[in-house]
Amino acid sequence: MARISAAGLALDLSTLT
């Protein structure tokens, strides 16, 4: 699940912003 980890991190950062 390394592919979703990168996308997940980006989405999480976008959500936190």
TrEMBL record:
Taxonomic superkingdom: Eukaryota
Designated name of the protein: Uncharacterized protein
